[in-house]
Amino acid sequence: MKNYDENNIFNKILRNEIECEKIQENQDNLSFNDINKQAPVHVLTIPKNKYANFNSFAENASDKEICSFFRSVLEVAEKMKIKDSGFRIIINCGPDSNQEVPHLHAHVLGGKNLGSILG
Ligand code: AMP
Q: Count of domains in the chain?
């Protein structure tokens, strides 16, 4: 995929070079605990295909991949028992968002009242 850094840490997780605490996995996506939790539940969902950010994903991924990605987030919410109590999905994209890891990921946060949207 164009403009994709093969050495980013999430690609290393996908290549099994770095361990993760897996929460959910299917053919298209992998979900694992964030290493630096910002809430009682803080899971990252990533597509297995190589998209550097949300723009690249929304422009290039198939409808099936996009649907599957959001279904995986829902499975995470179910598995972590925050589907009904509520949760927040954050996708950082580009410099103003301070996106650190250049492989698309959704932060799935919950397990307490999360306060206002920007903290
Ligand atoms: P972002 O700023 O949206 O790119 O978020 C990157 C997230 O990846 C941060 O919340 C980090 O704590 C998390 N992170 C970085 N390295 C790892 C890792 N090896 N395993 C799990 N989460 C990680």
A: 1
Contact of 101 with 53, CB cutoff 8 Å: no
Q: What is the distance in A from the centroid of ligand 1 to the CA of 101?
A: 7
In a domain, 62, yes or no: yes
For the stretch 5-48, pLDDT in tens is 999 999 999 999 999 999 999 999 999 999 999 999 999 999 99
In short, whether 96's Cβ falls inside 6 Å of ligand 1 is no
Residues 48-75 pLDDT 10s: 999 999 999 999 999 999 999 999 999 9
- Residue 37 within any structural domain of the chain: yes
Strand order in the sheet with 41-47: 22-25, 29-33, 41-47, 106-110, 87-90
| Predicted TM-score (pTM) of this structure | 0.97
8 lines ligand 1 (CB under 6 A): no
Torsion, Cα 113 105 21 69, to 10 degrees, reads 90
